[in-house]
Amino acid sequence: MAETITITDNRTNQSVEIPIENKSVASTEWMRLLPGIWFYDPGLPTTAATSSTIAEINGNEGMLRYRGYPIEQLGDHSTYTEVTYLLLHGELPTREAMDAWNAELAERSPIHEQVSQSLISTFQRDAHPMAMLSSSITALFTLYPESRQVEDPENRMIQVARLIAKMPTLAAAIHRHRTGQPFVPPNPELNFVDNFLTMMFAPDGASSYELHPSLVKAMDVLFILHADHGQNCSTTATRVVGSSHADPYSATAAGIGALFGPRHGGANEAVLRMLSQIGSLDRVDDFIESVKSGSGRLMGFGHRIYKNYDPRARIIKEMFDMVFAVTASNPMLEIARKLEERALADDYFVSRKLYPNVDFYSGLIYEAIGFPVEMFTVLFAIPRVSGWMSHWNEMLSRGERIVRPCQVFTGSPQRDFPVNRE
Q: Does residue 76 carry a catalytic annotation?
């Protein structure tokens, strides 16, 4: 027997029976029964604006899958570029397809001098990297005006490949400008993550840079974990702009703008600030009590979706020994571990389902590898562009309508304009 829900309009005693499909009910029957009556859902936590085949999330079970594949298995066995192919195409690539995809990304990774020199070099060196990244992405449209042909599937995939390939090059160029170092161009002989880390950290004038395999692996896994997360704020922003058939660079800039907000992409920066403020192991208990009393704020715990342990946080935590065996020890790591131990042993946090999320530990690894705190959100944007563009392409391939939500008007009723005012 099919599951249904019955809605009755008590004003007219008319009813409608709506089937429950995929844990949702369609709004069409509701609109027929109750035209002009809207759901009031600030923040849209209970509204599905679209359907998708890309990422499946179950917050109660702490589950995240890309195209059906558990995130844990992808982190163990896949690579970021393979995951980008999976997100875009729905299936894992053959060896030949993977070789061709990696070659295309390498070919499209260089950026034009008008961007690397004429634009990025004009920013103040202390400008925030996310603002510089947003401007640089928007500027790419001027070089690829054909990207506005969004109804052409082949053209869409060319632009998507450009965005995925150029994001790390732009990010590295921004970092080099901020630190007063010469730009290091991409090396087509290196894989995606090796290439990014080389462009970031190679000494002046060096075309190659020796990287420890453990750090490359950690960075690759972090990129996989951040590649997509369903209809989050930045993905929704990208889709909203993309629904107007704007070019993908403008849509991506919208996603970057949303990610820049401290409620979304800036959480791992806040975690490091919190750990620095705690300062030492003997102050952890006092900090826990300050959070419970309302005078302190625990960053990196809890999640809008996950009401259990964030599966991405568990994967990152498992990489700690691998990373810190290579890098210098970090006293904040021990503070973080003790903070997690105390919080998970306290019913105040457990009863509120405040478990560590992906941001609690990722910043410590970024810092250990050598990234400045200001670059953390950029490191989020680099892989997330693959998720943004997967949803953008899915939306356009379905011919979805322009996003135009309703509003509940609560302002003044009609009133006459005072003609004779003093």
A: no
pLDDT in tens, 313-358: 889 888 888 898 898 777 888 898 899 999 989 999 989 888 888 8
Helix axes 376-397, 129-143, angle to 10 degrees: 40
Query: What pTM was computed for the model?
Result: 0.91
SS3 per residue for 160-180 = HHHHHHHHHHHHHHHHHHHCC
Q: What H or E segment, with its residue span, contains residue 336?
A: helix 331-344
**pLDDT tens, position by position, 385-411:** 999 999 999 999 999 999 999 898 899
Question: CB–CB of 379/247 below 8 Å?
Answer: no
What DSSP line would sit under 198-214, residue for residue? HHHHPPTT-S-----HH
Catalytic residue, chosen from 175, 177, 226, 264, is 264
Catalytic site includes residue 303? yes
Beta bridge partners of 8: 15
99 catalytic? Reply is: no
Query: CB-based contacts of 207: which residues, under 8 Å, 6+ apart?
Result: 184, 187
